[in-house]
Amino acid sequence: MSQIWQTPAWPRFGYDHARIEPELARAAEAVGEVTGLVHGLAPDEQEDLLLRQIVQEAMASFGIEGVALDASEIEASVVASLRHRDRAAISRRSDAVAELMLTARQADQPLDSARILTWHRLLFTGMEVEDLGRWRRFEMEIVRSAAAGPGDVLYKAPPPHRLEAEMAQFLDWVNTDQRLPVAVKAALAHLWFESIHPLSDGNGRIGRALIEHVFARNRALPFSLSRQVERDKKAYYEALQAGRRERVGGHPDTGAAEIDATEFVLWFLRTLTRAAASARDEAGFILRRNQFFLRFAPVLNERQAHALRLLFEQGPERLAVGLSAKSYRKITKTSPATATRDLRALEAAGVVTRMEAGGRSTAYEIQF
């Protein structure tokens, strides 16, 4: 069976405008709503949200490939980069990942091969990887699983001798094409790059960094897209496969051979809309959190403030569980008597209310 890059359609990616336009409008509205929310935040709140977004994007993009990162180290590295602080105490791997995530969002210079290959070196800092920082020198097949046999090949990428020319054509398009809506261009850039699969490893992570870069050329995404992708990796891989098919009958107007990327673009826009909805809730949560501490800071002692901040850091799901005397003692490392006194003081101040659910340890609902 011929691969898509072996057909006359390559690399002309097209899509069904009638099917795409409604999803594009929904995605644009959702992203615009989040962007407006973010612009309404104070500068320190915007920095907090940016930090969360970059850390989430790194964790999720690596997680899609089954690679676990230390969130606290990534956060420390991103903070150090954003504030130009000394990073000597932070592991080289976390620094490199942070640099990759941040430089992907820098769109003031054209994207070139050197930059992508630098990202590749950053991605595998301190690791032994074949063809590190250069285009791969071996054939690449995408299979169903590590134990897959010859009949389980999903896709075979272009051979090594074609990669330099393929990437030159791709990068020229990224840097010059201004016709497409930014979300559609980001989708096609990712699909095209993954179809070339020019690197020995890390193509997915670099491809998702490219999405960040394409958006940054217009306006950086104020949320993590990879976190939404990670929630349904199967659909992501299926969409990639579905977007590599030649359009039956060619282009609807000219009849020229064309790749029908409609299914992938649809998946991308719907994923973008869902990611924006989650980000809208998160931005609202940060705003409410800051208002909560602004309101109650005068009545909180050091232990109470520490416990509440820790719960807020864990997000709305953890807050919904409430705060028990047992968990308060564990967080603050204090005695039962002190914990009881602190919790009663919080209740009297209206910071928490006692939950009706019984049990051996009284639980309190946080009023935010």
Automatic annotation (TrEMBL):
Active-site residues per Swiss-Prot or TrEMBL entry: 197
Keyword vocabulary terms for this entry: ATP-binding, Nucleotide-binding, Plasmid
Pfam families, per database record: DUF4172, Fic
One of the record's GO molecular function terms: ATP binding
Keyword presence, Nucleotide-binding: yes
SUPFAM superfamilies xrefs: Fic-like, Winged helix' DNA-binding domain
InterPro entries: DUF4172, Fido, Fido-like_dom_sf, Fido_containing, WH_DNA-bd_sf
Fido domain residues: 111-270
Binding site for ATP: 201-208, 236-237
Superkingdom, natural source: Bacteria
Keyword NADP: no
Protein's recorded name: Fido domain-containing protein
Organism: Phaeobacter gallaeciensis
